[in-house]
Structures are given as structure tokens and as C-alpha cells.
Amino acid sequence: MSSAEPSTAATHGAVNDRAPIRLAILDDHEVLLDSLGSWITANAPDFTLTLSAQTWLELVHSDNFPTELVLIDFQLKESVSIEARVRTCRAAGAKVIVLSSLDTREAKDRALAAGAAEFLSKSLPMQAVMDAARRVMGMDVGSPVHKDWRPLPSGAVNQVKPKLSKGEEEAFRWYVSGLSTADVAEKMNVQYETAKTYLRRVREKYAKVDRPASKKAELIRRAAEDGYLE
Fold this sequence. Notes:
- There is one protein chain.
- By secondary structure, the chain is an alpha/beta fold.
- The protein has two domains: 9-136, Response regulator (Rossmann fold); 166-225, Arc Repressor Mutant, subunit A (Orthogonal Bundle), CATH 1.10.10.
- Helices cover 41% and strands 12% of the residues.
- It is built from nine helices and five strands; from the N terminus they run βαβαβαβαβααααα.
- The protein has helices spanning 30-43, 56-60, 82-91, 105-113, 126-136, 166-176, 181-188, 192-208, 216-225, and strands at residues 21-26, 47-53, 69-73, 95-100, 118-121.
- Helix 4 (105-113) links the parallel strand 4 (95-100) and strand 5 (118-121).
- Helix 7 (181-188) crosses helix 8 (192-208).
- The longest helix is centred in the C-terminal third of the chain and has 17 residues, at 192-208.
- The relative contact order is 0.15.
């Protein structure tokens, strides 16, 4: 699934200024989970990612479950069947889209028979996945934007860009690209605690200029505003 394509979210605004759709993602690959979350945060303002889970129990035991829509990986490395996962989400009131790299008729039939609204290949671009999500949620695909969701340009009024050290900036760029803290440490060839410290300092520096960055979604937005995602 491609998550690096240019944003076209400017053509997909929230219909009638409705609140963003509350979205959950269940996928046992941490890097992919972070990558999907980063893309949605930066490119799909009509959705808010309220829950990311790597295991079935983590999903259903979360205080944020159920959400309005759940994206579920077909091939989880655990024994709970796709039928049980889809039916549980549906019973809780969530709509379900199943994503799979196993793009077979049998897999599709199983997911749809259990109540999934869509079965999509992971080879699809993320924009196509989110357009399908909009259709599932009864939203107009390609409707005009009612609010300007885009990040402020660098240097805009009241936007102070913190001065980051070389290590902080490198860790920041890797992290908002979708890597975990452990992966950032490996990429930079430093200890885990060192990478964690770099990211903590980035958050602190943004907080000092009154630009929230405590949550990963906020950190990604700050990266988009200041050009670190380009």
C-alpha cells in the first residue's frame, strides 16, 4: 500500500462541516501502522485516527473502542478469525473495511460475508483506500472543502519554528515518516534512549513556542507545517 503519494485531501472536505469520522486501525506491523496513521493525519482531515492497535485484544479493550470505522488487516498473526473480528466490530456499531495482501476471491468472500463493507488490496494507494472509506461512511468523494485543513506555511504569523539540533531534526524526520522510536534509533545508529531523548526534546521545543506536539498526530502536523515531511 503506497503511503507516500502527494496529498489530494483538498478535494475531500468534511461534508456539511460534520465532525471528522472516528477511525481505528488494526494491523500487527508496527511500521505500517505508523505509516498509515501518519498519512491519514496529514492527508485526511475528515477522519481522526483515535485508535491504532497491533493486536485484537488491544483494539477491543481500548477505551476508544468502538469507533465509527475500523480498518482491519486480514492476516493477523493471532488465532481470532476474520469473521469473529468483523462481526464483533459490527455488533459494537462500527463499520469495517478489511485490508489484505492476500487478494483472493476466498478471502474477499469471507470478509464480506461476515459483514465487512469493503475488502481492499493493500497494493492500493492510500488515497483510494480513504475514498472507499468515505463512500462507506456516506460521504461525498470529491466534495469541496469547507475549511482550510492545510498546515500553515513556514514563517506564517504566530508560527515560530523551533531550532532543532542535527540529531533532533534527524530523529524527528524519521519518526514522522512512520518509523517507531526503536527504528529511529537503528536508522541513526544510536541507543534507543538516545533516540527517545531526541524526540522528547523536539516535543519540548515545540511546546515552548506554544505549538502542541505531545501526541504523535500533533507532532506530524508540526512536521507538515515546518516542511519536515517534504
